[in-house]
Amino acid sequence: MAGIFLLLLLAVTSQTSPAAGETPPTFLKSVKPNPMSHLTEKLSHFRFYWHDVASGPTPSVINIVKPPSTNKTVPSPTMFGAVNMIDDALTEGPEPGSKLLGRAQGFYGIASQEEVGLLMAMNFVLLTGKYNGSTLTILGRNPVFEKVREMPVVGGSGVFRFARGYVQASTHTFDGKTGDAVVEYNVYVLHY
Ligand SMILES: *[C@@H]1O[C@H](CO)[C@@H](O)[C@H](O)[C@H]1NC(C)=O
Ligand SMILES: *[C@@H]1O[C@H](CO)[C@@H](O)[C@H](O)[C@H]1NC(C)=O
């Protein structure tokens, strides 16, 4: 009876631990104690105004890929395939001279053939107080003519290590002539 038990135990342990004589991997270690285990995750809400400035001598958005034509006769009405690179100011209020809190750096592409639906890939780098230098990464779908667009926060750095959450974006102003836009971003993020 005890012999069978010992055999079973050997069978199980031999599958989970390295065989005798085998050296443990040098490239992998679990971090003990986990430095996050005594911290509590908190939910923070930030509100930023995102300034996409296409006009003037120093635009913060530039077109880097022209929309390729999917129909040789007519260009796509949504500009499907176009890509813009951004380094947009994130401010406290909607006015252009409002206090700078950070920047939104990344790009967005027109990813829908039916509407102006963007794929956004950007880092919010904060420039203020204890958040200075920390980043949040936003990756999501932005159908710009909808009132509120929700996109995931997929991670972060600095004080935002292990961050997760979402943003809600709503257009504050859009100038159809220049392409300039101010968008309110409400960021809800769980972090330590
Ligand atoms: C391209 O657009 C033209 C004009 O609307 C249309 O007549 C044609 O059928 C389209 N071609 C394709 C391949 O969709
Ligand atoms: C943020 O960090 C940068 C680089 O370390 C520094 O130059 C700048 O003065 C800091 N800004 C604030 C508001 O602390």
From TrEMBL:
Gene3D superfamilies: Allene oxide cyclase-like (2.40.480.10). GO terms for biological process: phenylpropanoid biosynthetic process. Keywords: Apoplast, Secreted, Signal. Residues 1-21 form the signal peptide. It comes from the Eukaryota. Belongs to the plant dirigent protein family. Dirigent proteins impart stereoselectivity on the phenoxy radical-coupling reaction, yielding optically active lignans from two molecules of coniferyl alcohol in the biosynthesis of lignans, flavonolignans, and alkaloids and thus plays a central role in plant secondary metabolism. This is Dirigent protein.
